[in-house]
Structure formats: C-alpha cells, structure tokens
Design goal:
The protein has 247 residues and is mainly beta. Helix content is 6%, strand content 42%. The chain contains two helices and twelve strands; from the N terminus they run βαβββββββαββββ. Pfam families: Ig_CFAP47.
C-alpha cells in the first residue's frame, strides 16, 4: 500500500537481531503494480529474458499485472570478541606455547552432533584452512580458519615466523562449546609488536574472532668487540662478519 511518485526513492530498513550464532537467510520481495489497477502490455518472446519473466506476474491474456524485485539477504551472526592472547618471545629465540580457543554457541547441522578428539594442521602459509569435526559418519561440522592482519606486509612477516598446529578439538553437546587447542610456535628474527585476528567460521554459520598480540623483544647481544689501541693518532682495526637472514 505504499504509493511512489515517478523517480521517488523508497528506503527499506533491515533489522538483524540473531538469537543464535549461525547463518540466517531470507529474501526481501518488493511487489509493484499500477495504482489504477491496470496491467502492462507484455509480449513473451523466444529470446526474452528468463530472469525477467520469473519476476513478472502475468495474467491469462499475457499482460503484466505486477513486477517483483527479489533481494536475497544473508545474516552472519558474530560472537563477542574475546580478550587478546599475548604471544611474547625474545627476538632470535623460539617460543612454543599452547593456546586454547573456545567457540561458544556453536549450532550443529541437523544430523551432525560430533564429539571427537583428533588432530589436524593449520598452515599459516595459506590464507585459510578448513578443518572438520566429525562423529565418524558422513555428517561433518566444518570450520574455516583465517589469520587476518592489518596489512599484507605484517601478514607476510608473521607467516614466516609463525606456525600453528591444531592439536585437539573437544565438543561439549550440552553447553554447545567447541574447544580448539592450538600449539603455537613463534620464532621472530627481529623485535616487533603486531596484532592479528584468528577468525573462525563454521559451515552452519557464525563467526568467532580471537585477537592475538605478537611481541618480540630485543635480542641478546651477539658479542662484545674490544679494540686495543696501538698508539696515539694510530688506527686500530678489528674485523667481524655479518650474515643477512634475507636476500
């Protein structure tokens, strides 16, 4: 019952209030007809746009009684962001640390209620990795992991120093909490302080973000160079070698 003048705009507000951490899909359908109730003349030809034909409401005599615009809407619910996990290591040293991530409010597939503990690998050299939690049947619950950084330069730097291995996955069917236990290996070659997000998505929908703070402190002193003077106004020379870690 909304009347529109020619060239007039119509704003349609969309409100999304998810009660579960999953994907929601719907479609907004706009039905337009003439104010005076008359139909539009329309001729269906062999080369007519089939997509357009599906969005027309045709009468028995082939006239267009109404036009439909269909807008698919996909709502992705996101869990509240967790506190930052700090990974701290001295430059040119190697840190191995276990990090526990809890996915709260996981909604399983209709027939998949996995409850297993197995190991898998997350390769940070790739932009994303898909892992599965399965109960041994054909039904699986898949997760997609991705490390997001503020820039491609930071991501490339972290990927060369960082290794993440998924050691264990636990599913609590009562609380609907999936616990992911990672083994993080951090071996920075120079001091840094960079932030990243470990983003987890589930095939049933929903997104979890875990902030990670990587801190590499100043390295230990390599050596002490002593230069002994041979006399006043005379040069003393000491030679030493430097090895570059990159090209």
């Amino acid at each position: 019952g909304i009347r529109l003048d020619p060239k007039e705009k119509l704003d349609i507000p969309v409100l999304f209030m998810p009660d579960e951490i999953k994907a929601y899909k719907t479609a907004m359908v706009i039905h337009v007809m003439r104010e005076n109730g008359e139909n539009w003349p329309y001729e269906v030809t062999a080369d007519a746009n089939t997509e357009l034909n599906r969005n027309l409401i045709l009468t028995e005599n082939g006239e267009a009684q109404g036009i439909l615009w269909i807008y698919p809407i996909c709502g992705m619910s996101e869990a509240p962001q967790q506190k930052s996990v700090v990974i701290r290591c001295q430059a040119r040293q190697r840190l191995e640390q276990r990090v526990e991530m809890m996915l709260i409010g996981v909604v399983p597939a209709a027939s998949a209620l996995p409850d297993v503990r197995n190991s898998a690998m997350v390769d940070t050299d790739k932009s994303s990795t898909t892992q599965e939690v399965t109960d041994g049947s054909s039904e699986t619950l898949e997760f997609l992991y991705e490390l997001q950084c503020q820039s491609d330069e930071i991501k490339s730097q972290l990927e060369s120093w960082l290794g993440i291995q998924l050691l264990q996955k636990e599913w609590d069917t009562e609380s609907r909490i999936v616990t992911l236990i990672f083994n993080v290996v951090f071996a920075p070659s120079k001091p840094i302080r960079d932030e990243a997000l470990l983003v987890v998505q589930c095939t049933t929908g929903g997104m979890w973000k875990f902030p990670l703070l990587f801190i590499a402190t100043e390295p230990e002193v390599d050596d002490v160079i002593n230069i002994e003077a041979v006399g006043l106004n005379k040069e003393s020379i000491v030679g030493f070698k430097l090895t570059s870690q990159t090209r």
